[in-house]
Amino acid sequence: MAKILVTGGLGYIGSHTVVALQEAGFKVVIVDNLSNASIKVLDGILAITGKLPEFENFDLRDKHKTQQFLKKHEDISGVIHFAASKAVGESVENPLLYYENNVNTLIYLLQELNKKDNANFIFSSSCTVYGQADVMPITEEAPIKQAESPYGNTKQIGEAIIKDTCKANKNVNAIALRYFNPIGAHKSSKIGELPIGVPQNLVPYITQTGAGIREQLSVFGDDYPTTDGTCVRDYIHVVDLANAHLVALQRLLDKENQNNFEVFNLGTGTGSSVLEVIKSFERVSNKNLNYKIVERREGDIVSAFADTKKANSVLGWKAKSTLDDAMDSAWKWQQTL
Ligand code: UFG
User: Fold this and answer.
1) Domain total for the chain?
2) What is the CA radius of gyration of the chain?
3) Residue 76 domain-assigned?
4) Same domain, yes or no, for 228 and 240?
5) Do 303 and 245 reside in the same domain of the chain?
6) How far is the CA of 181 from the centre of ligand 1 (A)?
């Protein structure tokens, strides 16, 4: 069976994708520097799939090691590149770390893949590339707006680097997947999101508040022009997202791609407000959540949800889980921590 390199494979989306790949019969080799992941995630992957993926702990910013690694693993049929820094606020404080982590590593990987007769590459992109889109739902044709953070900029630059590489070398085939808001955990509760410190994202903050780790959730603003005044996002179950990677990879391996650089939105197509997410949590947990409305958070966009037609029809993939399914899995995972 084909061997796939998953960079950042011990991270949140990476680990769920490794599970999906192994369950589909792929051999997986993970590269992760454990900067934002735990080695214990390997135990979770083993418990779910019965297979321990190959794992190498090194930093992809080390160009020489990256070269050596790819020479040693010449038989790799595809690369799914998750390894990156992802905290918007941190990227504003430490932009050079973000450019180095997210851009240099991408270049080093592509430089090696560029030498192959046939390279298949899946890139973790983000709906952040659209900024506050003018039209909802957001299609892949929506304009790429000026990035609001260095993190967002690394995703825009990353896509541009891949696009140019694919244009110059038809042996490189790539798909950029623009994620909306991933939430939830594997149904086994053996892997899930592991935020370090105080969570910045809504769902881990909600589940930690439900578990008594945080006292109260702050809802950032209720005076936005939305149905209930709180911001709207497209929350997608991480297992649905992981499965989309499998489908995208198979498309490249089967040479079904229409272009050697393609882009797809990965969302559910449904927007949910912050208050709707809270209500969903309260339904699945049978708890009342302690929350208060506070000032808006700087940099938040009002609304973002995906037009999923392209992913549905071209990729043949559709998110299956509801918001309640995802919140239920997030809550079950939280209770194991
Ligand atoms: N929110 C709260 N309270 C919190 C945390 C979040 O009310 O404690 C609200 C936010 O204001 C926002 C919504 O919940 O309206 C979602 O916030 P998240 O931080 O969970 O997600 P974002 O949509 O802000 O950010 C996500 C990814 C980023 C990515 C961005 C692109 O986490 O990596 O989408 O738009 F850059």
Assistant:
1) 2
2) 19
3) yes
4) no
5) no
6) 8
* Phi, psi dihedral angles at 2 (to 5 degrees): -60, 145
Q: Provide the whole-model pTM.
A: 0.98
Residue nearest to atom 4 of ligand 1 (CA): 202
Given 266, 286, 320, the domain boundary residue is: 266
To the query of whether residue 205 is one of the catalytic residues in this protein, the response is no
Question: Distance from the CA of 236 to the center of ligand 1, in angstroms?
Answer: 13
Ligand 1, from 274, 289, 305: best to mutate by most atoms within 8 Å of Cβ?
274
CATH at 102: 3.40.50.720
Q: How many residues does the chain have?
A: 337
> Residues 137, 281: one domain?
no
Same domain, yes or no: 64 and 210: no
State whether the beta carbon of 115 lies less than 6 angstroms from ligand 1: no
Q: Tell whether 140 and 152 lie within a shared domain.
A: yes
Q: Domain of 64?
A: 3-183+236-266
Q: Is the CB–ligand 1 distance for residue 156 below 6 Å?
A: no
* CB of 127 shorter than 6 A to ligand 1: yes
CATH number of residue 210's parent domain: 3.90.25.10
Centre of ligand 1 from the C-alpha of residue 232, in Å: 9
Share of the chain above pLDDT 90, in %: 96
List CB contacts of 39: < 8 A, sequence separation 6 or more.
10, 57
Same domain, yes or no: 40 and 25: yes
Last residue of one domain, picked from the residues 213, 244, 266: 266
Q: Is the dihedral of CA 152, 170, 9, 99 positive or negative?
A: negative
Could you tell me the two tokens for 14?
Answer: 């990476």
Query: pLDDT tens across 231-270, in order?
Result: 999 999 999 999 999 999 999 999 999 999 999 999 999 9
Query: For the chain, how far is it from start to end, CA to CA, in angstroms?
Result: 35
Cα(11)–Cα(289) distance, rounded to whole angstroms? Answer: 28
Asked if residue 88 is part of any domain, the answer here is: yes
Of the candidates 98, 130, 151, 179, the residue annotated as catalytic is 151
Residue 61's pLDDT band (cuts 50, 70, 90): very high
Residue 1 has pLDDT above 90, yes or no: no
Q: How wide is the angle at C-alpha 258 spanned by C-alphas 254 and 259, nearest 5°? A: 110
300: CA distance to ligand 1 center in Å? 7
